Amino acid sequence: MLQNDRASIAKCISEKLKTNETHLIQQYNDSSGTIGYFFVDDLLPPELITEINNHFPDHKEMQLKKSLKENKFVAAQMNRYHPLLEEVIYAFQEDHVVDCIKKITGINDLYPDSNLYAGGISSMGKDQFLNPHLDNSHDKDRNRWRVLNLLYYVSTNWENNNGGHLELWPNGLENAPVTIHSKSNRLVVMATHQKSWHSVNKVTVDRSRNCVSNYYFSDLALTPLDRFHVTTFRGRPGQYLVNQLLKIDSVLRMGIRKLFKKGIVENPHVYKKDNSKT
User: Fold this and answer.
1) Who has greater pLDDT, 264 or 149?
2) CB within 8 A of 72, min separation 6: which ones?
3) pLDDT given at position 273
4) Model pLDDT for residues 21-40, shown as the tens digit of each residue
5) Are 224 and 128 in contact (CB under 8 A)?
């Protein structure tokens, strides 16, 4: 019988990470001079992936974020959706899974985020995208540094030419990105710091590219260059006007955060658990 509680899911995750540990450590170390990352395929049983993907909510039940920066659907209030989605998200926060990630990355000071600040689930349909950006440097209370981004792709039979793939820009936005395909049942873990520019290229088919997201935080920044910053967007190469507008947007939002530590309006992208069993 298929086990779909968080403990059973976490056990599958940690076993896969341990089995591939040597390779994943090498992959992360080889890339850590720029944007450290690793990915592992076939993370969970195929039948469980199908079930997770089938229980993703319709786009009309999620929040649309659409601007020059991005075009995607997100959700963090997980008690509104099928309980399996919450179970798989929080499986990545079980202690033994976090311990595996610590060993692979060499980051011993890691805390998962039960508030799902900017985490949870996301979905992109045809022509949706995410422009190059740096993630917000801190957690919602600005107490800890955001250091790892965990992206777990669950859209079944997702082909390479469907788009919606993660792009890393280790050599800056003037140079070609490294593309990591959003292959079904693939977990990507990437470092987030002052130079972790990343994006998602446009989805080209009339399907949903679904993703389960988590962030890990730390008491210490990953690099000596790290400074507090809001989520910072830029245009793609060739998008000169968009790039200038997004630079202005970042400067204005940084100015607001210097005056108001948590911003003028509370970020709604958190899991408020008052009525949750979590």
Assistant:
1) 149
2) 64, 65, 66, 122, 123, 124, 128, 129, 130, 200
3) 82
4) 999 999 999 999 999 999 99
5) no
- Tell me how far the alpha carbon of residue 203 is from its chain's centroid: 17
Q: What are the φ/ψ torsions at residue 246 (nearest 5 degrees)?
A: -70, -30
List, as own/partner pairs, every contact residues 4-7 make where C-beta atoms lie below 8 angstroms and the sequence separation is at least 24, other chains included: 4/48, 4/51, 4/84, 4/87, 4/88, 5/87, 6/87, 6/88, 6/90, 6/91, 6/94, 7/91, 7/94
Q: Is the pLDDT of residue 1 over 50?
A: no
| Closest-CA residue to 154 (of 260, 240, 41, 230) | 41
Strand-strand pairing, 209-218 and 178-180: unpaired
Residue type, 51: E
What's the confidence (pLDDT) of residue 268? Answer: 77
pLDDT of residue 278: 41
Non-local (6+) Cβ contacts of 232 within 8 A are: 133, 134, 250
CA distance 203 to 189: 21
Show the domains of the chain with their CATH numbers. Answer: 6-259 (2.60.120.620)
Cβ neighbours of residue 30 closer than 8 Å, sequence gap 6 or more? none
- Lookup: tokens for 52: 């997770």
Position 141 scores a pLDDT of 87
| Calpha distance 193→185 (Å, rounded) | 26
At residue 248, the 3 state secondary structure works out as: helix
Quote the mean pLDDT of the chain: 94
Output b/e per residue, 106-115; b: 16+ Cβ within 10 A: ebeebbbbeb
- Comparing 86-95, 133-142, 179-188, the range with the smallest average pLDDT is 133-142
Euclidean distance between CA atoms 170 and 4, whole angstroms: 36
User: Helices 83-91 and 46-54 sit at what angle, rounded to 10 degrees?
Assistant: 130
